């Protein structure tokens, strides 16, 4: 029986064990990020560089590029000064300050391979450094431009989810837990698959454990996302939520994690999107308003700003269950 | 029973609900695009830029590149003029007009890193701007060239579909709905999977609802597309089309959406192709002519221009069904 | 019954219909290419350019790059000549022939953005063309270098297959059709899946039709290819080959198409490999020799040159089947 | 029966046959590499170049780039010397040694397209070689920069596995073989699938054969790796390990190969990770210590340095099995 129960309760589904959620710190936040602090990592983690550079903000990224460019030029300026500024033909500065900037701008012209030539290297040392610098420049800029384009062309899903989970009438005399989503991008999403994991704290002989259930859905896959998609979990006898009230959800710090997978036609790649609903996002007795309209030609017009709109409604009395 | 019916009727398969099609505005057009207008989007959508730049026409793309190049040079030309054209060594213009073009062409030589050097920057300000511009030039051109190559190497399926859906004799005493496809590209398509979704308007107690059915196919997967492939939906007892006439299809604004998925050997990626047939694309009583021939060595010669060719034929009288 | 038979006979598995093979022109050749000539294609097929440029031979590719570079420079040389060679500062040629080469080399220095500057443009026209040329140069070289790297980094499986298909003793008192494969690359192949399609001509009431059977394999998937892999089709009662002799295979122009799919660890992509065996590649009564050895430390040494080696052996008399 | 046994014993699962492991030379090493020497390969293997260049160490890679750059410049220096150093305008060297370095640095300025212009080519021959060199330079640097970025952005899983396999108490009165893993990277891993293959030498009538078993797991897939994941193989009646002692594992040179597959959110690609445990990595009677903690807000803090920590414990006496 213990094994049976364990199978029905996939508590490792999110890689967590039985650990309860405390003080409203859910496992997954609304923006899809994971709410776990990590420590004990090695100090130097070169394998995270690419990830950091691809996911940091644009402002930070440009600043970093600028700083690297400036720093590299400063370093090479000092190297040229070390060799002697007299080895830079055409450098006309007279003071140490002017010498530095001559060397600095010569370095910038070399590293970007623009090479005007009004300043040019003379002698073995300066020529060698310049040859090396232009090579390094090409490689360094390849990293920078690769990252720039990688950031720009990174395949990411831009899914808009309804703000709330609704407990709505569903079929005849029944109820369902519902939310909606739509694609904010112009591209087409194909082969969408969705998974909802419901978790809550359970009191087992005084010990609080976290339980995880994958919710059964009316349909968990669509071939093509043309409009909005309403995902429905029927609140029938098989549902782990069937006897829960709004109070229960709050008390057990219930949360709903949503995992979406789709194929993106523009990027020709699989994209993922995540979100989470907490207990206070659930609205009991409501129904989504249609998010689309018809234009004069009968063509459907989808209004993405209405994706969260709902109206209150009465829920069926579940006579046959009670 | 209601649930059962719902399961047999996957009305969310295309992300549409029960909305009927009006005035011949099908969900998917023949070129595979989705016939839905979208509004309510945020005005500024940076996440759509890549998609737009990758999918816009080639003429528009080149024009955009040229405009950006021109505009950037104009901006930098004014910056150099602001600093003072006397800081550009070798600029020989005498009038304001000539000064502008000196600055403009110096900018172009800097941004493309060609740097002839007959004009070169002098002093802190001009040198700093030039150093910055060459860096920006490298990054901006990386975006442009990345997009150019991304457009050029974008994996897309070029599938040619037969113009019509045929209702043809199939096996002994039976009929099938058939269409053909072939690969227009030289590359090889592997692991092809096809899905046909049939939809029509149904009158349910005076309310018109759209019904969606995934049609059962003789085979929905082939390992390798070597020639043309004829997709067959048998019009047997299980088919939702079994009692429909040409009239019925027209009245209910029936349409057939075709979704194809394949692995492309040249791009090493999964590609998708879509098309749709409307009720007036269906030909009753016809049979595809062979699209291939033999050369003198017994080798098969596929003629892609014949992919839509059919000849009229008589349909079997469905005695046993009637 | 007809439908049943049809299901067991996946004649569309390779996208061919019932067409027999004539004069030893199998569907798939030994190198995995498809033996079908295509015609009726539109004359201008831009969508095939990438594919052609990626798959053409290296010699042809380099020649093409060189020709494009030369041609572009010739075109721009004539444009500069048209503008007047006096607008190229530093061009010292005196004859028309020398003028041309001055313009040509100035163009080469501009298009490659090397821009020495001993020749430099003067005046609006020459400067404009030079600015445009350096931009085009950056874009054109981006295509060339993208293709170069795309060709270099194209994920392709390099699988070595044994030259022959062996009919070998298998388990107790039974026989199997076997061949071997190994990875020629240093990389690791993961999640390998193999499919063998056996096809032959069948005489159905005087009409010759091609039949296709997917052969059942002892195992059609391995998690990891560490050494060589011997693929076995047991010649038991379920095999379509169970009553066939070497003569039958020849008469019916039998052929065996092999489709392999794997995940390549180095390229992080799925790769495919194909080959085909014809009836005269089948050896009756043979057994593969081990392709590996042990070194002094007990470590296994795989000898890829022995992958096709076999020794003759006696086949079991199939008493219980006869 | 023989076939049945064979099916239950997937001895080709790793592409190995029945070959026993000798002298502690397992098939897969702890770092996931495959312990097989390969020979009989063709001498010239261009298809392995990319793989080698992508996977070699960073030091070696930089050295290789530098050597190529140096060598190319030396070659072109000799070509320019062959043409005659008087064809390089601005080269001021007087001795053969100085001539060489003038030519060398001119080559470096050409190949990197920096082109200062204080040295510039004169005449057909020098100009032609320079034009060719700048083209080659662009292409060669494209390969170098492509490889650099390819290495930098290569999607690889950085999984930390616990150092030991534990035989731990599991559920009521039972035992399980357990190990843990966590993600060292900042990125998110989705759709993780794990496979463990247990192999050992078996004495079959005096002949030692290698047996392979895929171990059944409590769960072999998680949707999302948020924390650490403990993989459990229950040592119940179905386990091939159920009657084995620590002694048996050693005698039979038992080993456990772990194959992990996941989707990496940052790289948008599938990544793989492998490891292996040998018999002496198994600890009998131990239990993993929690690797995480709570901070003051109830948020979970994962300590990756504790992933291997365990404490000794007593194992249940398997009364009902004995």
What would you note in describing this structure?
- The structure is a homotetramer of 322-residue chains.
- Chain A is α+β, with helices and mostly antiparallel strands and 322 residues long.
- The model of chain A is unreliable at 1-13 (pLDDT under 50).
- Chain A folds into two domains: 46-153, Orthogonal Bundle (Helix Hairpins); 156-319, G protein-activated inward rectifier potassium channel 1 (Immunoglobulin-like, Sandwich), CATH 2.60.40.1400.
- The first copy, chain A, contains six helices and 17 strands.
- At the A-B interface, helix 3, helix 4, helix 5, strand 9 and strand 16 of A face helix 1, strand 1, helix 2, strand 3 and helix 5 of B.
The total number of structural domains of chain A is: 2
Number of separate helices of chain A: 6
Low-pLDDT stretches of chain A: 1-13
Class based on secondary structure composition and strand pairing of chain A: alpha+beta
Per CATH, the architecture of the largest domain in chain A is: Sandwich
Helix and strand sequence of chain A: HEHHEHEHEEEEEEEHEEEEEEE
Q: Biggest interface between protein chains, with counts per chain? A: A-B, 63 and 74 residues
Question: Rg of chain A to the nearest angstrom?
Answer: 30 Å
Helix content of chain A: 25-40%
- What is the molecular shape of chain A? elongated
Total beta strand runs of chain A: 17
Which assembly state applies to the chains in this document? homotetramer
Terminal residue distance of chain A: 27 Å
Q: Biggest β-sheet of chain A, characterized?
A: 5 strands, mixed
Residue-averaged pLDDT of chain A: 84
User: What is the top-level CATH class of the largest domain in chain A?
Assistant: Mainly Beta
Strand content of chain A: 25-35%
